[in-house]
């Protein structure tokens, strides 16, 4: 079978949330099928990754995308009822690529609603749409955290994108969510559209408990650092929570590990006890030295890979409800859940005060992901879903 797989970013290397999922899907599907990957290349690393995909036997094509320029080009859509998202990821060149390859494919798959716009006209093809989590819900959360005029822009995007998501998900054969909670939200807002849930996994070989003792008082956050929820969470921790921790543990320090730190994030590096690394070859090296991993996200849906990876490393994790709700463990079982600055700081201090309890929490975290987040389990569900869609 020949499968066309559309994604916002070149699906390699698996070094951020969406790329982890898209690469795992394509790697699995290419074992038994011929997969053609079409995506947008955001930088030189994406363009270089096309060669690696070819070396792995996967036909891959990409269209260059300057996101900042694309956002400016999409701005006139504010005068219409069309979502800005579809303008940012709308491309005549991508349309031509899809038109060139789709007719010869047996199955079409889109990852994220922005790529679903390219599936709509192929009504005779079986189609699967990975919604993952509703992007319209994300924009609604953004609206709740910002002031005008962006508050109005985000609220408009939430409304217009939900209308598109309803159209898309009623058109395709199956929509895929990443957590049971996302499935509930989907069924509430897009009733009647076929959907299923396939969780992410975590690479338990790459992310595993280290042999060396953690560095006392060392807190680590990992994530792409030009993504608004990550920026907001790190600013909140560094400016409001870390000072409370350092009042009791002056040695405490915070390392922000991730690509593309914004000026606001880089400014955090000027605070006492805060380091901003920028790009690193391996986040697991930093997690291996941490005493505690944090996920202070006040805006989040779906499964946070950063949480799964820290848990797989056997780390004690403190996160918010938003950051942990997709994982499915209970507070205190495999991580700690706190939603105010004071409570978050208290939990961090408690773990530093009792390193043996922190180690025990980390051991339970590792056992939890081993039991619930094996990639093989998720990929078996992917195989079954594809087979079911093709049977009609």
Characterise the protein shown here.
With 392 residues, the chain is of the alpha/beta class. The protein has two domains: 2-201 and 374-391, Rossmann fold, CATH 3.40.50; 218-372, 3-Layer(aba) Sandwich (Rossmann fold), CATH 3.40.50.2000. It has 17 helices and 13 strands. It has helices at residues 17-32, 44-55, 67-74, 84-88, 92-101, 113-116, 135-145, 150-171, 180-189, 228-248, 263-268, 283-287, 305-312, 321-324, 341-353, 355-372, 375-391; strands at 2-7, 34-41, 59-64, 107-111, 127-132, 174-177, 195-197, 218-222, 253-257, 274-278, 292-295, 316-319, 336-337. The strands form two sheets. The protein has a seven-stranded parallel sheet with strand order 3-2-1-4-5-6-7, sandwiched between helices. Helix 2 links the parallel strand 2 and strand 3 (59-64). Helix 1 packs across helix 17 (375-391), helix 7 (135-145) runs antiparallel to helix 8 and helix 10 crosses helix 15 (341-353). The longest helix has 22 residues, at 150-171. The model has no long low-confidence stretch (mean pLDDT 96).
pLDDT < 50 stretches: none
> Helical region count?
17
Q: What is the helix content?
A: 40-55%
Quote the distance from N terminus to C terminus: 15 Å
